[in-house]
């Protein structure tokens, strides 16, 4: 499936104490929606649409768990979106770690 | 805190589900958001309905914007909670799915939204991390906001409605109970109803304290009044004084400890001191309740009431929809058996399809098997779904309200046709599915010897059997005290049924609320009942009672009971004989 589509990928660790709850999920979804790209979050068990808060919440990611960010290649926009997403994670969504 | 100019008032009702809760009253029907009606939307009107939903979302968005704009600068620094909510409003899992549901199910927007949200909530509830689990509340808050804009009610403070409340209502029909968001309910208080009413059964299953039949609760209690509900004694205290609250808080803690203690032992088999093992099963109404049965150590499902899936909807459910639910239950609890009762509608559980017929006396009217035999197409669909589920674990089929042998034969004929149709379609089912009947109409009890030859088991439905035999409306508080499970006529009738079954080598089970009261257990053991089924919450206490009893000795009890003339004498005898063995105050926390 989707063999013709290629994705930019980076694996990150959930840095904040409360995990991927509504607020971080909202930041991720907003970033993806604003960038207008296809993006998903992948864990060992599941793949979800990164533009949907609810989808992200269903991952139930707690602090310390790993998640792979994938953004579909579509020129510079995709790379910028991925950088922006990584930035959110690296800054712990502005929350205590 | 301002001094409230009201004094403590004690209201007395019927204790319908034990436990104590303290909280704010919420009167049903006043704000209307909690009970959501479902109605069909014609294909040509679907676009308008979707638009109505979109408008409500837009309005919600504007409200959130306004709140954000009015917030002080410093809390607005980052994406605040209202902005998360704003994104949630248009989230495809909420927004997109609701629109899809309106279009696919052709239903009103309120119902579609409720359906989508309750599915999401279940998904979050199953999460392991408790913090993330709580995040479902954001979705609930957002959907509440949309819902209010859909129904056009004035905005209620979110913080208020998010607190858990004590529901106060005149009466709750099964259809209404099914629509309440139960996780918001701390307790039930109603003007009508008794221990065997539907609300009571639901409350006990979900372990929510309930005091019913208070007559004037809805006029005495105002929204937001502070209440204490003691679901064991039926006492409701309005505007409690501080010392009363403290006293009840202590009782509540004691009760929780007692319940936890007895639940710990619930997974051990129920065996009498002389070695007889009895299966103690659970009654369920919603497929989700199977979990409660397992948690309380149930040995299977002794009664799966199937009415809920037929209620509050436009047409009858399809075979696939029914099969899905039945299979869920069967798979979850296998290899323990599931006893599925075929549809028992009308009576006190009217559905959209049967609403048009206004019967003066629905309990004696076109209901249950009578209704199914007149609507064989629908009956056939349900039987197909039940039989197909039997491929996934042991299933028993039980026909309700059988009053004589012709009805049983007619029902078995439809079942035989169902088997043929499944064979024809090459669909799997268990060829050895056990077939039984409910003994709940007195004539079936009288004819038990004849009926026993044509079934694999009996199950005594005591709620209806007592009601019909003693001519007592169990929901009528004027006569509720005459509803006596230990009435000598009832005991004789039960004995006759069990003996008739034994003569044909078939077991007799019991699935009414009579089986849930520890006082009745010595009698039922003595009569030779083969299995008990009850609301899941009662399972641990009943198992505990069985473990204290000597089965052999209960036979002597029956001989003595047969010499007595009244229910009062019989009850006194049991209490005298078993005062040490019956759990103290059963599930009541009395001083």
Distinctive features:
heterodimer; A: 97 residues; alpha+beta; four-stranded antiparallel sheet; 4 strands; globular; B: 591 residues; alpha/beta; eight-stranded mixed sheet; eight-stranded parallel barrel; 24 helices; 46% helix; 13% strand; disordered N terminus
Word description of this protein:
The complex is a heterodimer of chains A (97) and B (591). Helix content of chain A is 36%, strand content 22%. Chain A is an alpha+beta fold. Chain A has a four-stranded antiparallel sheet. Chain B has 24 helices and 17 strands. Chain B is 46% helix and 13% strand. By secondary structure, chain B is α/β, with parallel strands linked by helices. Chain A binds chain B through residues 18-23, 25-27, 29-30, 33, 49, 51-55, 57-58, 60-62, 94, and chain B through 78-79, 81, 83-84, 87-88, 91-94, 120, 123-124, 127-129, 131-132, 135, 138-139.
Tell me the layout of helices and strands:
The complex is a heterodimer of chains A (97) and B (591).
Chain A: E1 7-13, H1 22-35, E2 39-42, E3 47-49, H2 53-58, E4 66-72, H3 76-90
Antiparallel strand pairs in A: 1-4, 2-3, 2-4
Chain B: E1 9-12, E2 14-17, E3 20-27, H1 46-69, H2 81-89, H3 92-105, H4 109-125, H5 130-134, H6 136-151, H7 158-162, E4 165-169, H8 174-179, E5 185-190, H9 198-205, E6 210-212, H10 217-220, E7 226-230, E8 235-238, H11 242-264, E9 270-271, E10 277-284, H12 290-295, E11 301-304, H13 319-333, E12 338-341, H14 368-374, H15 376-389, E13 395-399, H16 405-425, E14 434-439, H17 442-446, H18 448-452, E15 457-460, H19 462-470, H20 488-503, E16 508-510, H21 521-527, E17 531-534, H22 539-548, H23 551-561, H24 567-578
Parallel strand pairs in B: 3-4, 4-5, 5-6, 10-11, 10-17, 11-12, 12-13, 13-14, 14-15, 15-16, 16-17
Antiparallel strand pairs in B: 1-8, 2-6, 3-7, 7-8, 9-10
